[in-house]
Amino acid sequence: MPVSIVHKTTNDNKGSCSKYGFYLNKENKECIKEGRLQDLQPFFNLRNKRLTTMEAIALIDENGKGKGLRSNQDRYFTLTLNFSQKELAHLAKKVAKRNIENVKELNGQEFEKFNELLSDYTKQAMKNYANNFNKGITENQIAWFAKIEHRRHYKGNDEEVVKGKAISGQLKDGLQSHVHVTVSRMHRNWRINLSPLTNARTGKNLVLNGRKVLGGFDRSNWKQLNENSFDTLFDYKRGLDEKYETHRTLKLGSLDEKRRLQNQLEEERKRSLAQEKKNQKSL
Asked: Do 143 and 257 fall into the same domain?
């Protein structure tokens, strides 16, 4: 399932997003060092395919000015759109018409198209983000920028590093594409506060920092909307074990719900194995 994450905020979120904006150039710096200028990724948003670092930063910083934000309030939020290797392989095959295990296997045109698909999905995810506030706003009324990355590195606390199978800083194998999004807290035109950290499931009786507020952001619903959008945009046939609702039920469901779901998963697994055997015999 595509995992949509709203990250916790720090003191950095209460000022300019410049530190985070420059940080997001880290992969581009690696590409420049390696002489792979064709792999450089620009910032982008709903209106622009290419934004410079300074343009992206100014977009967020300027949008928060003169709209009544207190010094102790977050001015922007950071989101990440992550994908499974199976989902990324589906997108890569869609543009290359062959199986792809690493983005380096894509030629120039294929790589460009692959990035376009990720960009299109990001724009849809941010449309879902705006709708999910239940305030009647649209994607045109939120200020955001995004950056696509195609690499991930092992960290010191990763299981592979702990077990000695990899070292911290080492590149991870396979398709690792993901998207970083930075979004302003404030509406583009009005003094409307748009926090995805609002503790809410509905538009009523919402609480933020101990105060009642109007409108809310259901993060679980946003994840589900994004999963639905991925499947629709890219004609992805999602198995039961890949669905967000499946993972949520296995974690939070009742004992009976978990048992029923586990039985369904086992039945699907058996059908899948039977189909694989049938396909092998036909070769």
From this structure: no
* pTM for the structure as a whole: 0.91
Cα torsion through 187, 192, 193, 199, rounded to 10: -120
**242-253 tens-digit pLDDT:** 999 999 999 999
Q: What is the pLDDT of residues 168-210, one digit of tens each?
A: 999 999 999 999 999 999 999 999 999 999 754 544 554 444 5
Same domain membership, residue 19 and residue 32:
yes
CB 81 within 8 A of CB 122: yes
Q: 105: which residues sit within 8 A by CB, 6+ positions away?
A: 96
Rounded CA separation 276/283 (Å): 11
**Are residues 228 and 249 both part of a single domain?**
no
Whether residue 90 is found in the same domain as residue 219: yes
Same structural domain, 172 and 185: yes
